[in-house]
Request: fold
Amino acid sequence: MEALRIYTEKPYQLQGEVIISGAKNAVLPALAASLLTAEEVHLTNIPLVKDVQTMLTLLAELGAEYNLKKKSIAIRTKKILSEQAPYQLVRAMRASILVLGPLLARRGRAVVALPGGCAIGTRPVDLHITGLQRLGADIKIEHGYIVAEARRLKGAEFEFEKKTVTGTENLVMAAALARGETVLKNCALEPEVSSLCELLVKMGARIDGIGEETLRIRGVEELGPASHRIIPDRIEAGTFLVAAALTGGDLVLREVEPAHLQALVDRLTFSGARIEKAGRRSLRIIGSQEIKPQDVTTAPYPGFPTDMQAQFMVLMTQASGTSIITETIFDRRFAHANELIRLGASIEIQGDKAIVRGRTPLSGAEVVATDLRASACLVLAGLVATGQTTINDIEHLDRGYEKIEEKLKTLGVKIDRLKNNNNHRMGAKHE
Ligand code: UD1
Reply:
């Protein structure tokens, strides 16, 4: 098991520039969308993270051939060779569920393992299933697999009971090749959903209402080749913004989309940081010596992202007073709180709320990461915890952050990757 160790002899003040990678949550649906056509899809600004590798392994099993060079990929599935997403891959990455819609739409059959339990709540996929059924699919659950069949999907109206990001993406992809018009209501507004729709339009899909809650998709007979640039990762960018706010640093983030970061920027500004545009695709943040406490509630986009909740909690441990963080998207997404407490934080969990009492000095210890964003939160904590902080099981971190330790090193952080740190208790296997 690999670990990261951060050495904090004196307080860091992060300084410098960091280039933000392409969004993990945008590249995964874009890669899945390549299954919808026999032609080549070309994507640029690919983040080289573990989840991309897992998706490529899955797509290769389904018949895709690809050429990944630096940060660009040309991917093509001339013929679908298998319609099965095996449990091992779905277990390693829930987003594997994104092949369900495309396989069903192009091949007429998809067999995808049910994702099962995970470290951040139950996370069902019932809305993916009911939505596809509404488009005419016949779906059964057999031996832990979703078995979906449809000779050709038929356009229909469907309203999501709850906003779901990958659920919206699966339905849009399926509807793109369905016969007739589909109207999807209460769609997720996340920029990654819009980015997928834009790629689909380039491939020949007919979609109206991109960026809105109601999407109208007029199905076409087939889709064709396209080129698309992956949008910047707003969660990676957000993690670095918090790192600067936490350490009173002065950072410039390059290759970001400031509009996608508004909810977080508002909260950080309220906490005392100064954030300004430094060019069209750059932001500068200057942290303040005093961090103000505040209450934050996660919500679907454009609200405060659940994927930034853990990182924001670290910041609040250093604020001068009490904050209440409410998690409304996923239940049990507070595993990181226990690890922060081990570093010296004062946090009390009451149902969906974390009451964080600041400011508490943190001191380094061995901690274990239980999911992707919890790992990022612990890395941030290591920046302000005195002495050594060792974050174990960083395979979670590698799923979604590209070269995080290299990026932190350029900002002045002393951080090492330990190849075989087995000296710790076991963490949860997957999120
Ligand atoms: C995506 C993101 C993930 C982020 C999450 C919420 C990707 C690959 N992952 O995950 O990083 O944390 O959005 O912003 O884009 N739900 C149901 N039934 C369903 C589907 C979802 O009840 O069929 C519920 C979930 O349990 C959760 C809420 O809807 O409470 C939102 O989940 P959803 O948006 O689907 O999350 P993901 O798409 O899995």
